[in-house]
Specification:
Elements lengths: L10 H34 L2 H13 L4 E4 L3 H6 L7 E5 L9 E5 L9 H4 L1 H9 L3 E6 L10 H14 L2 H4 L7 E5 L1 H9 L16 E5 L16 H19 L4 H7 L13 E6 L11 H10 L4 E6 L17 H12 L1
Helix pairs in contact: 2-5, 6-8, 9-10
């Protein structure tokens, strides 16, 4: 074996060289993947579309923004002060139904400008009324606080149907990444719409959802750097929601698959095969298996080479997914 050039300096030195090469090559690949993700994100989200729609509604006096908690609730809990809904009324609504949009951000922050406003603007073009919810994240979070915010927001809409000109029957939820986790749990059998005397969502629509089965110890990665990203992302949301002492328990409590039963709403979901932050094989694929095992009506689209955080997915293989999702929603309500 020593005659082989690779082993010229001995097996131990060869192993050391291979390990160093592995760390360097996988690090370069990870940096490239993340840089590629941000580049595609920038082109696919169309932040300008959302910004233009907001400005247009403001100039027309039609942009409505409301805190969802009472003054007493906000006085007793300062973290509830920034929770709000923004209403995007369609210029020519097809009907009174609406969709609530839940931006992602890993429960650490909100990607409202990327995954909220542009999606609402696009829905408006389809004749669909939309709301965007800014729920509690980061240090403002608490156990299942985003689910409470969503339930309270929908109750607020239910109590003010005349103001918004909408109806509750058949409403939809769209959630991206951690927003998909929020929508997925809220549509289930606990910490859900049932706790707020609300009708079941007509359908839920999930974009590259984080379903919290991304435990590196249970699902090891060939790339250690992406594995470390997985550990960080799996525990970050749990940390903000449940605290350092209860990260492991919190991670289990945020596993969407545990909330699915036979009564789960019809679900549309899409993800990309090049998602290094929320790999489809550890999230969307596992979630789809749970839907299939419970005989839940669903449609799952998976696109080769598509990364995380693409929102509308413009200029990618996922482009047009929102139109197909709306068609699915309308077909099941």
């Amino acid at each position: 074996m020593k005659n082989i050039y690779l082993f010229a300096n001995g097996i131990e030195e060869t192993i050391r060289t291979l390990i160093v090469a592995y760390f360097i090559l996988t690090f370069v690949f990870t940096v490239y993947s993340i840089a590629r993700m941000y580049f595609i994100e920038h082109k696919s989200n169309n932040v300008r579309l959302g910004r233009v729609r907001v400005k247009g509604l403001q100039l027309a006096g039609r942009f409505k923004q409301f805190p969802i908690y009472s003054r007493e609730e906000m006085a007793s809990n300062r973290h509830k002060r920034d929770v709000r809904i923004m209403f995007f009324p369609a210029d020519h609504p097809k009907n009174k139904r609406f969709i609530m949009i839940l931006p992602g951000g890993g429960y650490a922050h909100l990607c409202t400008k990327q995954e909220g406003y542009p999606v609402a603007a696009t829905l408006n073009k389809m004749g669909i009324n939309a709301f965007v919810l800014e729920y509690r994240t980061g240090r403002d979070c608490a156990p299942f606080a985003p689910m409470e915010d969503l339930g309270t927001a929908l109750q607020f809409i239910k109590n003010n149907l005349d103001i918004f000109g909408v109806e509750m029957e058949g409403y939809g939820l769209i959630g991206f990444s951690a927003g998909g986790n929020l929508a997925g749990i809220f549509a289930g059998n606990d910490h859900s719409y049932k706790d707020y005397n609300l009708p079941k969502p007509g359908a839920i629509i999930l974009g590259y959802p984080w379903t919290c089965v991304n435990d590196w110890l249970h699902h090891p990665y060939w790339n250690i750097w992406i594995g470390l990203l997985g550990i960080w992302l799996s525990n970050r949301g749990s940390f903000y929601m449940f605290g350092l002492r209860h990260i492991r328990k919190g991670r289990e409590l945020l596993d969407v698959a545990k909330y699915i039963d036979k009564d789960y709403p019809p679900t549309f979901m899409y993800s990309g095969s090049w998602d290094v932050l929320v790999p489809a094989s550890r999230h969307a694929d596992v979630f789809e298996t749970a839907l299939r095992n419970n005989d839940v009506e669903h449609k799952y689209e998976k696109f080769f080479g598509v990364p995380h955080g693409i929102g509308l997915g413009l200029h990618t293989k996922a482009e047009g997914w929102l139109g197909r999702a709306v068609e699915f929603w309308e077909s099941v309500i």
